[in-house]
Amino acid sequence: MDVRVLIDNVSRNPVVTDPSDLPSDDRLRSLYGPPRLPWLRVNMISTLDGAATGAGGKSGDINNSADKRVFDTLRALADVIVVGAGTARIEEYGVASAPIAVVSRRAEIPAGLREAPTGKVILVTCARADGLPTSREMLGEDQVIVVGDDAVDLRRMRAELVDRGFQNLHSEGGPHLLADLLASGVVDELCVSVVPHLVSGPYPRIAVGPGVNIDLDLLLLLEGNGTLLGRWAVSAT
User: Which DSSP state fits 186?
Assistant: First the structure.
Protein backbone atom coordinates (compact mmCIF):
# COMPACT_ATOMS: atom_id res chain seq x y z
CA MET A 1 0.00 0.00 0.00
CA ASP A 2 1.39 3.38 -1.04
CA VAL A 3 1.04 6.29 1.35
CA ARG A 4 1.52 9.89 0.28
CA VAL A 5 2.82 12.81 2.29
CA LEU A 6 0.26 15.57 2.90
CA ILE A 7 2.06 17.66 5.53
CA ASP A 8 5.73 17.41 6.41
CA ASN A 9 6.95 19.52 9.32
CA VAL A 10 9.77 17.08 9.98
CA SER A 11 11.99 17.97 7.01
CA ARG A 12 10.95 21.66 7.06
CA ASN A 13 8.57 21.30 4.11
CA PRO A 14 5.24 22.20 5.76
CA VAL A 15 2.85 21.63 2.83
CA VAL A 16 3.37 19.01 0.16
CA THR A 17 1.56 19.88 -3.06
CA ASP A 18 2.64 16.96 -5.24
CA PRO A 19 -0.03 14.23 -4.87
CA SER A 20 2.45 11.68 -6.22
CA ASP A 21 4.83 12.21 -3.26
CA LEU A 22 5.04 8.55 -2.29
CA PRO A 23 7.90 8.04 0.19
CA SER A 24 10.30 5.15 -0.16
CA ASP A 25 10.97 2.92 2.84
CA ASP A 26 14.18 4.84 3.56
CA ARG A 27 12.41 8.19 3.44
CA LEU A 28 9.58 6.90 5.62
CA ARG A 29 12.14 5.88 8.24
CA SER A 30 13.66 9.35 8.00
CA LEU A 31 10.25 11.01 8.40
CA TYR A 32 9.64 9.03 11.59
CA GLY A 33 13.12 9.36 13.05
CA PRO A 34 13.21 10.77 16.60
CA PRO A 35 14.51 14.36 16.83
CA ARG A 36 16.54 13.48 19.91
CA LEU A 37 17.25 10.60 22.25
CA PRO A 38 15.92 9.27 24.50
CA TRP A 39 12.46 9.47 22.92
CA LEU A 40 9.20 7.71 23.77
CA ARG A 41 6.49 7.50 21.15
CA VAL A 42 3.11 5.77 21.32
CA ASN A 43 1.43 4.39 18.21
CA MET A 44 -2.34 3.83 18.16
CA ILE A 45 -5.18 3.33 15.68
CA SER A 46 -8.74 4.67 15.66
CA THR A 47 -11.88 4.53 13.56
CA LEU A 48 -13.50 7.77 12.41
CA ASP A 49 -15.96 7.52 15.28
CA GLY A 50 -13.18 7.17 17.84
CA ALA A 51 -13.01 3.43 18.50
CA ALA A 52 -9.62 1.89 19.25
CA THR A 53 -10.81 -1.65 18.53
CA GLY A 54 -13.34 -3.45 16.38
CA ALA A 55 -16.00 -6.03 17.13
CA GLY A 56 -13.46 -8.63 18.21
CA GLY A 57 -11.95 -6.31 20.81
CA LYS A 58 -8.65 -6.00 18.94
CA SER A 59 -6.96 -3.11 17.17
CA GLY A 60 -6.17 -5.69 14.51
CA ASP A 61 -9.88 -5.71 13.65
CA ILE A 62 -9.65 -2.18 12.24
CA ASN A 63 -6.15 -1.88 10.82
CA ASN A 64 -5.23 -1.97 7.15
CA SER A 65 -2.20 -2.02 4.86
CA ALA A 66 -1.46 1.72 5.18
CA ASP A 67 -1.43 1.45 8.97
CA LYS A 68 0.69 -1.69 8.79
CA ARG A 69 3.33 0.02 6.67
CA VAL A 70 3.82 2.74 9.29
CA PHE A 71 3.49 0.20 12.13
CA ASP A 72 6.30 -1.88 10.61
CA THR A 73 8.44 1.24 10.13
CA LEU A 74 8.04 2.31 13.76
CA ARG A 75 8.88 -1.17 15.02
CA ALA A 76 11.97 -1.27 12.82
CA LEU A 77 13.19 1.99 14.37
CA ALA A 78 12.49 0.92 17.96
CA ASP A 79 15.05 -0.21 20.50
CA VAL A 80 12.27 -1.63 22.69
CA ILE A 81 8.50 -2.13 22.36
CA VAL A 82 6.50 -1.15 25.46
CA VAL A 83 3.03 -2.67 25.79
CA GLY A 84 0.44 -3.33 28.46
CA ALA A 85 0.00 -6.96 29.45
CA GLY A 86 -3.70 -6.90 28.58
CA THR A 87 -3.04 -5.61 25.08
CA ALA A 88 -0.25 -8.14 24.52
CA ARG A 89 -2.62 -10.91 25.60
CA ILE A 90 -5.66 -9.78 23.57
CA GLU A 91 -3.63 -8.99 20.44
CA GLU A 92 -1.75 -12.31 20.83
CA TYR A 93 1.74 -10.82 20.80
CA GLY A 94 4.66 -12.99 19.86
CA VAL A 95 8.40 -12.33 19.81
CA ALA A 96 9.44 -9.28 17.77
CA SER A 97 12.77 -8.10 16.39
CA ALA A 98 13.10 -5.62 19.28
CA PRO A 99 12.70 -6.70 22.92
CA ILE A 100 9.16 -6.35 24.28
CA ALA A 101 8.72 -4.67 27.66
CA VAL A 102 5.42 -5.87 29.13
CA VAL A 103 3.89 -3.52 31.71
CA SER A 104 1.84 -5.42 34.28
CA ARG A 105 0.70 -4.45 37.75
CA ARG A 106 0.14 -8.16 38.49
CA ALA A 107 3.44 -9.33 36.95
CA GLU A 108 1.53 -11.17 34.24
CA ILE A 109 3.42 -12.52 31.24
CA PRO A 110 1.08 -13.17 28.29
CA ALA A 111 1.07 -16.75 27.03
CA GLY A 112 2.57 -15.91 23.64
CA LEU A 113 5.68 -14.44 25.26
CA ARG A 114 6.39 -17.00 27.98
CA GLU A 115 8.68 -19.13 25.82
CA ALA A 116 10.59 -16.19 24.33
CA PRO A 117 14.40 -16.38 24.14
CA THR A 118 16.25 -14.68 26.97
CA GLY A 119 16.33 -10.92 26.50
CA LYS A 120 13.38 -10.80 24.12
CA VAL A 121 10.84 -10.10 26.90
CA ILE A 122 11.22 -7.74 29.84
CA LEU A 123 8.60 -7.50 32.55
CA VAL A 124 7.93 -4.10 34.15
CA THR A 125 5.94 -4.48 37.35
CA CYS A 126 5.62 -3.39 40.98
CA ALA A 127 6.96 -4.82 44.23
CA ARG A 128 3.66 -6.17 45.56
CA ALA A 129 2.58 -7.94 42.37
CA ASP A 130 1.26 -11.42 43.13
CA GLY A 131 2.97 -12.96 40.14
CA LEU A 132 6.41 -11.47 40.74
CA PRO A 133 8.17 -14.62 42.05
CA THR A 134 6.83 -16.77 39.21
CA SER A 135 7.75 -14.22 36.57
CA ARG A 136 11.28 -13.86 37.92
CA GLU A 137 11.69 -17.61 37.72
CA MET A 138 10.30 -17.69 34.20
CA LEU A 139 12.26 -14.77 32.70
CA GLY A 140 15.25 -14.48 34.98
CA GLU A 141 16.01 -11.81 37.57
CA ASP A 142 17.71 -9.48 35.07
CA GLN A 143 14.66 -9.41 32.81
CA VAL A 144 12.27 -8.09 35.49
CA ILE A 145 12.13 -4.37 36.30
CA VAL A 146 10.39 -3.49 39.58
CA VAL A 147 9.37 0.17 39.80
CA GLY A 148 6.83 1.18 42.43
CA ASP A 149 5.15 -0.62 45.32
CA ASP A 150 1.45 -1.04 44.48
CA ALA A 151 1.48 0.37 40.94
CA VAL A 152 4.01 0.65 38.15
CA ASP A 153 5.89 3.95 38.28
CA LEU A 154 6.06 4.86 34.60
CA ARG A 155 8.61 7.64 35.07
CA ARG A 156 10.98 5.19 36.70
CA MET A 157 10.16 2.62 34.02
CA ARG A 158 11.30 5.01 31.30
CA ALA A 159 14.48 5.84 33.20
CA GLU A 160 15.26 2.16 33.82
CA LEU A 161 14.78 1.25 30.16
CA VAL A 162 16.98 4.15 29.05
CA ASP A 163 19.65 3.08 31.55
CA ARG A 164 19.61 -0.35 29.88
CA GLY A 165 20.47 1.29 26.55
CA PHE A 166 16.99 1.53 25.06
CA GLN A 167 16.98 5.06 23.67
CA ASN A 168 14.16 4.88 21.13
CA LEU A 169 11.18 3.62 23.12
CA HIS A 170 8.09 2.63 21.14
CA SER A 171 4.79 1.88 22.87
CA GLU A 172 1.72 0.27 21.33
CA GLY A 173 -0.61 0.98 24.24
CA GLY A 174 -3.25 -0.14 24.84
CA PRO A 175 -5.68 2.60 25.80
CA HIS A 176 -5.19 2.27 29.57
CA LEU A 177 -1.40 2.34 29.30
CA LEU A 178 -1.52 5.33 26.94
CA ALA A 179 -3.64 7.29 29.42
CA ASP A 180 -1.26 6.43 32.25
CA LEU A 181 1.81 7.33 30.19
CA LEU A 182 0.27 10.69 29.29
CA ALA A 183 -0.70 11.36 32.90
CA SER A 184 2.86 10.53 33.97
CA GLY A 185 4.32 13.04 31.52
CA VAL A 186 6.67 10.58 29.83
CA VAL A 187 5.31 10.62 26.26
CA ASP A 188 7.24 12.61 23.66
CA GLU A 189 5.17 11.73 20.63
CA LEU A 190 1.82 10.25 19.64
CA CYS A 191 1.22 8.57 16.29
CA VAL A 192 -2.39 7.80 15.34
CA SER A 193 -3.79 6.09 12.26
CA VAL A 194 -7.41 7.13 11.59
CA VAL A 195 -9.08 4.55 9.36
CA PRO A 196 -12.13 5.34 7.19
CA HIS A 197 -14.41 3.01 9.11
CA LEU A 198 -17.31 3.33 11.57
CA VAL A 199 -18.23 0.83 14.28
CA SER A 200 -20.42 2.67 16.82
CA GLY A 201 -20.93 0.50 19.93
CA PRO A 202 -19.18 0.59 23.32
CA TYR A 203 -15.59 0.45 22.14
CA PRO A 204 -12.75 2.24 23.96
CA ARG A 205 -11.05 5.40 22.72
CA ILE A 206 -7.28 5.34 22.20
CA ALA A 207 -6.79 6.66 25.75
CA VAL A 208 -8.87 5.38 28.67
CA GLY A 209 -8.16 6.62 32.18
CA PRO A 210 -7.72 9.80 34.21
CA GLY A 211 -8.36 13.03 32.35
CA VAL A 212 -5.41 14.92 30.90
CA ASN A 213 -5.05 18.34 29.27
CA ILE A 214 -2.25 18.06 26.73
CA ASP A 215 -1.56 20.02 23.56
CA LEU A 216 0.22 18.46 20.61
CA ASP A 217 2.08 19.81 17.58
CA LEU A 218 1.55 18.21 14.19
CA LEU A 219 4.81 16.89 12.74
CA LEU A 220 3.62 14.75 9.86
CA LEU A 221 0.44 13.71 8.05
CA LEU A 222 0.28 10.88 5.54
CA GLU A 223 -2.63 9.43 3.59
CA GLY A 224 -3.17 6.01 2.11
CA ASN A 225 -6.47 4.91 0.55
CA GLY A 226 -8.45 7.17 2.88
CA THR A 227 -6.48 6.37 6.03
CA LEU A 228 -4.87 9.39 7.71
CA LEU A 229 -1.64 8.71 9.57
CA GLY A 230 -0.54 11.51 11.87
CA ARG A 231 2.54 12.13 13.95
CA TRP A 232 2.23 14.64 16.81
CA ALA A 233 4.81 15.87 19.31
CA VAL A 234 3.62 16.38 22.87
CA SER A 235 4.06 20.11 23.48
CA ALA A 236 4.87 19.84 27.17
CA THR A 237 8.00 17.74 26.67
Answer: -
**Strand order in 189-195's β-sheet?**
13-15, 4-8, 216-224, 227-234, 189-195, 39-47, 168-171, 80-84, 100-103, 121-125, 144-146
| Alpha carbons 26 and 42: distance in angstroms, whole number | 21
Residue of 95, 100, 73, 72 whose CA lies nearest to 171: 100
Q: What are the tens digits of pLDDT across the range 150-197?
A: 999 999 999 999 999 999 999 999 999 999 999 999 999 999 999 999
The reported pLDDT for the residue numbered 1 is: 59
Q: Are 222 and 6 in contact, with CB atoms under 8 Å apart?
A: yes
124 inside domain: yes
Task: Please tell me the predicted confidence (pLDDT) of residue 98.
Answer: 98
Residue 155 resides in a domain: yes
